[in-house]
Design a protein that fits this description.
- By secondary structure, this protein is of the alpha/beta class.
- The protein has three domains: about 5-85, no CATH class; about 95-185; about 210-335, no CATH class.
- Helix content is about 30%, strand content about 20%.
- The chain is built from eight helices and 14 strands.
- Helix 5 (about 135-150) packs parallel to helix 6.
- The longest helix is centred in the C-terminal third of the chain and has 21 residues, at about 265-285.
């Protein structure tokens, strides 16, 4: 955030930044450390330059904004400044921030904090999926917005930071519309921490197993179901498709599906690679398949990444589904990717 308001013809420059203490300047202040000397309290290591909004937020929510968290924030930002100033010859291109939300709104300030030390390009774009709106209208709205961004320049140079907390179909469709051409950074909402910032540790996963692929190619016409079991299992008995229409059911699963499976962006890279290989295998083994059906039980960022691997010019129309715990049918059709609206 700019911390200086430029002068006008009638008024001087105004400084709106605050030099704030990380550990309080007094024994009764926020994050106070009584063992810290007066000299050390005012030293550079204990100071941070903040806008007034963040200053009040940090001091008012001191349990969330700990000494360690603030020092890491400052350190990360300093590293970004050293690497990204224009005179260093590095790009200073911002990221299009795309927020995918359902019934519950997402705090845009948290997304900007998670993107640091990078920065957003303009205001975040928020795409909401109202439960009462038809899926076709939701898809059309997303298509207008995302394709509008991609049409403004070379899509290979576009950069999107995506913060998804929306229905699975919205996330899959957003990935499909973004395609794999632009650079896309995905973020996971960590509910217990109320944060979008990824943990420091990397988790390299090799437990994504694929089953159901045939050993031989078939030229028969029909349909194929692809099930991703990451947060929970997709039971074949819940698939609302006549078995006589299905050529195969393909499963991509982890050894123990659970809601805490996704902990690192590295897992998204592994998921992306596995989805790409599965989709390529399906195109080879079932060249005359008239439709794919995609069932996904997993975290929202993974849905976006899988959607990116669906090639609009090669894959057949792909039907997406929403899970309904209480309904007579566990899975109900939502969006058709590759249909007339997509």
């Amino acid at each position: 955030m700019e911390l200086i308001v430029d002068a006008t013809d009638h008024d001087p420059i105004v400084l709106i930044g605050d030099i704030a203490h990380i550990e309080a300047s007094s024994d009764k202040g926020p994050r106070a450390n009584q063992d810290l000397s007066t000299k050390d309290r005012d030293s550079y290591e204990n100071l941070i330059l903040l806008c007034k909004n963040c200053h009040f937020r940090f001091d008012g929510q001191k349990k969330t904004n700990t000494v360690e968290a603030i020092k890491k924030l400052r350190s990360d930002h300093e590293a970004w400044v050293r690497a990204s100033l224009p005179e260093r010859g590095r790009s200073t291109t911002g990221w299009h921030v795309l927020i995918l939300q359902g019934q519950h709104p997402i705090d845009a300030l948290q997304t900007v904090a998670a993107l640091s030390p990078d920065f957003p390009k303009g205001r975040p774009t928020i795409l909401t999926t109202p439960p009462s709106q038809p899926w076709s209208e939701n898809l059309a709205k997303m298509a207008r917005t995302i394709r509008g961004f991609l049409a403004k320049g070379d899509s290979f140079h576009s950069r999107f930071a995506v913060f998804p907390l929306a229905p699975v179909s919205t996330c899959l469709a957003a990935g499909y519309l973004l395609t794999s051409r632009p650079r896309v950074r995905l973020f996971q909402h960590h509910r217990t921490l109320a944060s979008w910032t990824w943990p420091d540790e990397k988790v390299v996963t090799n437990d994504l197993k694929v089953s159901g692929l045939p050993s031989k190619r078939t030229m028969r016409a029909g349909e194929v179901a692809i099930c991703f079991h990451l947060s929970a299992r997709v039971h074949h008995t819940d698939i609302p498709i006549p078995m006589k229409s299905l050529l195969r059911i393909i499963d991509v699963t982890v050894s123990q599906p659970n809601v805490y499976w996704l902990k690192s962006p590295n897992q998204l890279d592994a998921l992306s690679a596995r989805a790409t290989s599965v989709f390529a295998a399906l195109l080879h083994h079932f060249p005359n398949a008239s439709r794919w059906h995609l069932f996904y039980a997993g975290p929202a960022p993974g849905a976006v990444r899988i959607g990116q691997q669906l090639n609009p010019t090669m894959t057949p129309p792909t039907q997406l589904y929403e899970f309904n715990q209480a309904g007579s049918s566990r899975y109900t059709p939502s969006i058709m990717l590759g249909g007339p609206n997509s």
